[in-house]
Automatic annotation (TrEMBL), chains A, B, C, D:
Keywords: Hydrolase. It comes from the Bacteria. GO terms for molecular function: phosphatase activity. One of its GO terms (cellular component) is cytoplasm. This is HAD-IIA family hydrolase.
Amino acid sequence: MRTRSFRSVVKNYKAVFFDAFGVLKNHKGLIPDIANTFQYLDKKGIPYYVLTNDSSRSPEALSKWYQERGLGCITTDKILSSGMLAMEFFKTKVTNGNAVAFLGTNDSAHYIETAGLKTVSIRNLDLNDIDHIESCAFLDDEGFDWNEDINKTINLLRKKNMTVVVANTDINYPVNKNDISVAVGGLADMVEKILGKKFIRFGKPDAQMFLLAYERAMKDIPDIKRGEILMVGDTLYTDIIGGNKFGLDTALVLSGNTLPEMARIKIGSTGIIPTYVCESAVIEL
Amino acid sequence: MRTRSFRSVVKNYKAVFFDAFGVLKNHKGLIPDIANTFQYLDKKGIPYYVLTNDSSRSPEALSKWYQERGLGCITTDKILSSGMLAMEFFKTKVTNGNAVAFLGTNDSAHYIETAGLKTVSIRNLDLNDIDHIESCAFLDDEGFDWNEDINKTINLLRKKNMTVVVANTDINYPVNKNDISVAVGGLADMVEKILGKKFIRFGKPDAQMFLLAYERAMKDIPDIKRGEILMVGDTLYTDIIGGNKFGLDTALVLSGNTLPEMARIKIGSTGIIPTYVCESAVIEL
Amino acid sequence: MRTRSFRSVVKNYKAVFFDAFGVLKNHKGLIPDIANTFQYLDKKGIPYYVLTNDSSRSPEALSKWYQERGLGCITTDKILSSGMLAMEFFKTKVTNGNAVAFLGTNDSAHYIETAGLKTVSIRNLDLNDIDHIESCAFLDDEGFDWNEDINKTINLLRKKNMTVVVANTDINYPVNKNDISVAVGGLADMVEKILGKKFIRFGKPDAQMFLLAYERAMKDIPDIKRGEILMVGDTLYTDIIGGNKFGLDTALVLSGNTLPEMARIKIGSTGIIPTYVCESAVIEL
Amino acid sequence: MRTRSFRSVVKNYKAVFFDAFGVLKNHKGLIPDIANTFQYLDKKGIPYYVLTNDSSRSPEALSKWYQERGLGCITTDKILSSGMLAMEFFKTKVTNGNAVAFLGTNDSAHYIETAGLKTVSIRNLDLNDIDHIESCAFLDDEGFDWNEDINKTINLLRKKNMTVVVANTDINYPVNKNDISVAVGGLADMVEKILGKKFIRFGKPDAQMFLLAYERAMKDIPDIKRGEILMVGDTLYTDIIGGNKFGLDTALVLSGNTLPEMARIKIGSTGIIPTYVCESAVIEL
């Protein structure tokens, strides 16, 4: 697979959208020397944004993670998460006074609460007192007992018909060099199949994630066209097909999900074709 | 199932999005008295738009159909089709000079050509001369020999890796009171499964259709919020879930796909919950 | 939905296959008066067998459950379970000295061990010592920590390529009048999707379950034909389609999964057509 | 991928099951020198059988094809096809006097008629005269107009609820070195999805195909055990997983569907593990 240097690619764009995991960070922390890339982009005056399917934390908490590791430039306003879309959904769709039942940590729900909404952890929910529960959210794969609380979620949804939101469409995520863990999107797929219901999913490759970022970019460069933006990601099925469909140019990086030796085979067998392939998003200064 | 009169519902919104088939028209022609609805909306100053997964004709041709039947108010600028999204995609993604191979009538391709793109019907394609073919489109279920040309499409995509666009996600459509026909989205699903590839689909319930219409509405009412728009449709899996997810309020009408006696069961079993249920979109004047 | 009395149906057959849950028993225990049915069949000299997708216990333990409730006629040799097929599979496919890693209770594994095979609970497995693990089995939804051990299973299967057996294809089961629980088949579906692998599944509607029972019936009535056997079940997707396909006649009973008010709609919408529909398998004496 | 010579593998078994396409023949005709293999097996006294998902012709017609090419040993009784299972099904399930509507050539239906059943080609069916149609069969991808007759099939199944049989589960088949064609199983998948119904499928990997062959083998070697039979095939998803599950040993050959350079990757990614991998089923004499 012939690859291009990231610098030679990115210099031709007016703005850049980055996926987080596998591009900017991995299980060990920041990708080494990724700071160079932001130094370069800042110098060139090319704005950048991080698009993540992470609904376990607020943009503030996500931003703080980068800042603590020396990437002060990844401020809250640079972060666009699927959790933000879920929060917007609940703000418009949940009646005042009613509550959202959720699977996840209290941290993951805290963000929804900042919008003035009530939340109840499925763990603490009394299935005999659900009149005020208007919607249900899959936020994070932690913060509950899988056995007991997934079954409880199923029975809640059998007792009362309500809209269910999956705020992270990923079905798994890496926990270290070799191991992965089921993500909340995988649990949601299982529950959806058992119930025969249709949930609402937010996150890449869905257009709403790209729209959210595009609207943010237009605040910085009002007349920017979609074709002037580069989406950088490590996953064909989310970052690349979603970016292509939204009209962005796309760069697949081989520092995460898609292993260098498999990139050509995967592109050929899926028909998901990035505009460019780069070893990583790191720029040698 | 308790239903609401469409008038009592629609009067509270600043703009209306209508699905076409099963809402404004059916296999016999216009839904009787649907003209009343547009007379009412014009009088109230509520703008309206038609969102259709029809990629077999241009907005001009779609608009003409209504005008010939006395609905002069459905002008070209009121029509938003999945074919428009496909055309936009090809405009940004196909290299100048290259061509799009398509399944469909010449009419369906004509619209793409108006954007300056070259097209070649799969029927006329020589599989030994495909260097200039850069993309492939499923546009319409007519205009080709199903047996020969679907197999030809499969072998084109095995010979050369390219992006495939499905410009109509519907898997079937009604042809008369009792009968349905496979739509091009159904053929695309079969081909995708056989090839193991991933196609790009445009059309409801995808957010891009709703975004296209929302951008159009903002030209008429610059500060309109999503929650001030009503999406009216007959299909839970496209119109209603798509509208809900995009943040619109939704009205399911029982004049098409979803039969009155099944509406309650379907809403309960799918968990796709419209804001309102109405017998039809017709307003008694 | 016009139903037939079970007596008028069953008297015309030479043997009967019963599903267990929803037919002979439910969450409260035995279906009231089901003993009558076996008294009738014994009197008529019609042999019967119980076909169950239950892999959590041995035929001995399953039989004991009936015997403790007064149904002495349900002896071990009357029971055919998907767990028996899994055990047969491991006996022929696992090399002497190697082990099967399993999700489930120790009880569920005990049955495999009686065949001389070694088993290791995923819970107790050391992922750094897996040379002797040759196969993996989903046996029961209890006996492990869902969060930790499902993720451990996924990482075991990433570390070493091995055949995975799902000994219970059901995706959920009822725990009381209103509530259901995820069954081990549902967990297996999720893991299979995350890994992109293909597991081997035993249990109805697969032909091997019916073959196992048919071979047992032929021991009692050597020249019995498939069409002389009645399969009685409460689930269209397992009991009825599986029985139909294997060449048996089928009776859907409305005492379990398929509610009386939905039977006609479900048969019409699925196209899975039982030979008969009966209120229950109970015979009034 | 380390491969074994087919001779060194096959000599240890008491009987052999062969897949046809990609193992014994390809688009050009017989695999060169495959006659050697049968000469060897005959000499060793190892009986063999051909298991094929081909429902377009009768066992007689399939056998004749081999005989015309010099393989006189592939007699009718050596052939087990999914079409035979479909015929058995109709014999027990279709009421005397009623008819089976079919998609396919007249040849494909001729076989069903030899069992005394009436058939009607969908092409010739009058949708206003369907009282006598009791079942529907997908037999072959030829012999009908795809556009018109697939839609006609859909509307037949909407008008009248009946059991639908898919007599060939393959979704595509090779027509020459480079090209493939949609098989009738692919068309059936599309129709099933559009209707939301559940069809009955015959053919590998389903246990009934292997059972049919096993029963045939037991006529030649009454006490043969499953583990003493070798299943030879070129496709992991049908031949190998089906053989493994039925308790046979399995040999994947690289002369067909599974390309040598991809075999290791496919086995690793699917978790479908053949007992052996051989270049082909040809034995050098």
